[in-house]
Amino acid sequence: MNDDDYSATELGSHWFQRPEPHTTPDRVEGVHGEVRRFGPGVTAAAAHRAANTPSATQIWHGTLPGTPPPRPVRRRWPRRYALACIVLAAVLLFLAWRHFGPQVAVRDVAVTAPATELGCDATADVVGVVRTDGRPGTLTYHWERSDGTRSGPLHETLTRGQQEAGLHLLWTFHGPGTHRATARLVITSPSPHTATADFTYRCEAAG
User: pTM for the complete prediction?
Assistant: First the structure.
């Protein structure tokens, strides 16, 4: 045969097509209704391994399958804060006890006046003595005089252990004449008490 007379038949493309496998490809529904096909499909063993393989997110957050959730961390206050709270509570209790606790109790009240007659243009020092039980507190009182005058409310603060308080009334006289004077001490708080004292003022006019 002459080489120039040789011709080859062009092979069709169906001779190069591989036979299709007998397995049916898996059908996976995608988003928006599209269908995705992945070859012969994923075997059950591979799917099991993929489901049980921890992801990076699980490892980062510590949420591996079968791992119990972490316990919440309990914050403990330092001891210095606890000591400061105890000291503050003790101070508040002490202040509350001083303010709302038992107050001073009056046991006895007495008033003394000058034993001798006052001379011309003299001042009498009338002293009221209040005896207490020694607890701290405040006395509220006023003075009344026999000439019809009266002082306003007065206050005397007593400290712890102080069992006696001296309250003074200075009464000044002028001009000639004779006057029998009476001074009254009135305790209004913490409990009502009264005491009085008398003295004489005498001033004779020069002849």
Answer: 0.52
